[in-house]
Specification:
Blueprint (H helix, E strand, L loop, with lengths): L18 E3 L10 E7 L9 H15 L7 E5 L3 H12 L6 E5 L4 H10 L2 E5 L11 H7 L7 E2 L8 H17 L6 E5 L4 H13 L4 E7 L28 E5 L1 H15 L5 H15 L4 E7 L7 H9 L3
Parallel strand pairs: 2-10, 3-4, 3-6, 4-5, 7-8, 7-10, 8-9
Antiparallel strand pairs: 1-2
Length: about 300
């Protein structure tokens, strides 16, 4: 994925995102360098652009997506935003998005333009999926004619797009010298796809997941796998270590990212970069890469007050 000349449409802008060294939050030393992979440079603003496009193109190849098909997808926002934008662009029907009632306002407002319907489901709507009402709501559409649920939590095209694009980009950008890869877990697609690629290149690369330490938290799109559903596509055998991060530590790190590094990231990035701070505190060495999944502005109303106390 290279952005040369004039692109035919925005799908050609997916991927090839930049990587930047951190200079203040995790200062470089002769023994270590901490880097951030800035996924908000994707055209719709998050790493889920890759996921959504991978699922759409995969569904077309598999024969699941046709002109008469309505996609229905459970999402905390970013996948739904990207999926709906790309489906509109490519001439398919507007999708139905199922989401929890706590979906951030910025995402909800954009989805109101690009979807045919938003089905906002209470988290406890179905006992089969505790805390995952959006998934239960989406599955309810499966019995309807000409409806298709890509289901990012169980769709093999999700980790495959990261294996094919995100992983190779990271390997190339670090000159194959990466020693630690740090990522949150939402669907499990990023850490599974990237982790699989990096492990094939160098089995010694450490794949580290960061997860909210609290059972109840406000980090949209992230999950603690001890308390919530484990996504079907998540390959835990690839993960060398799980770091539990307190919300206040993640928010504090996010403020530092914005004010000291100029990386205007969303809340999950405070958690991934905080994971690298923990690596630094215990004296780990090497070349580390953390995923910065999206940007700040789509969460402003929800997190601004929380961040100001750390200024």
């Amino acid at each position: 994925m290279r952005h040369d000349g004039i692109c035919r449409d925005i799908t050609e802008l997916i991927g090839d995102t930049p990587m930047v060294r951190l200079n203040h939050v995790v200062p470089p030393t002769p023994e270590r360098t901490a880097c951030a992979k800035l996924e908000y440079f994707n055209p719709v603003g998050s790493i889920k652009d890759r996921t959504a496009y991978g699922m759409i193109t995969g569904a077309v190849r598999d024969g699941d997506l046709k002109p008469e098909t309505t996609c229905v997808e459970p999402t905390s926002g970013n996948t739904g935003v990207a999926l709906s934008v790309f489906l509109n662009l490519l001439g398919y029907k507007k999708p139905v998005i199922t989401a929890g009632e706590q979906i951030p306002d910025g995402k909800r407002e954009l989805l109101s333009l690009t979807t045919s319907d938003m089905d906002l489901a209470p988290d406890d709507v179905c006992p089969r999926f505790p805390g995952e009402g959006a998934i239960a709501a989406a599955f309810g559409y499966k019995k309807l004619k000409d409806h298709f649920v890509p289901y990012q939590y169980g769709n093999p095209h999700n980790p495959q797009i990261h294996y094919a694009t995100t992983g190779p980009e990271i390997w190339e950008q670090t000159g194959g010298k990466i020693t630690h890869f740090v990522s949150g877990i939402g669907t499990g697609g990023t850490i599974t796809g990237v982790g699989r690629f990096l492990k094939e290149k160098n089995p010694g690369v450490k794949i580290i997941s960061v997860e909210p330490s609290e059972q109840s938290h406000e980090f949209y799109g992230l999950r603690n796998t001890e308390y919530t559903m484990k996504p079907e596509i998540l390959d835990e055998s690839l993960i060398d270590e799980k770091l539990l991060i307190d919300s206040d530590d993640a928010y504090r790190t996010l403020v530092e990212l914005i004010t000291r590094e100029g990386i205007v990231a969303g809340p999950s990035s405070g958690m991934t970069v905080c994971g690298m701070k923990l690596l630094a505190e215990r004296g780990e060495e090497g070349l580390w890469v953390a995923i910065v999944a999206d940007e700040f502005f789509r969460y402003t109303g929800e997190i601004l007050a929380k961040l100001k106390k750390f200024l």
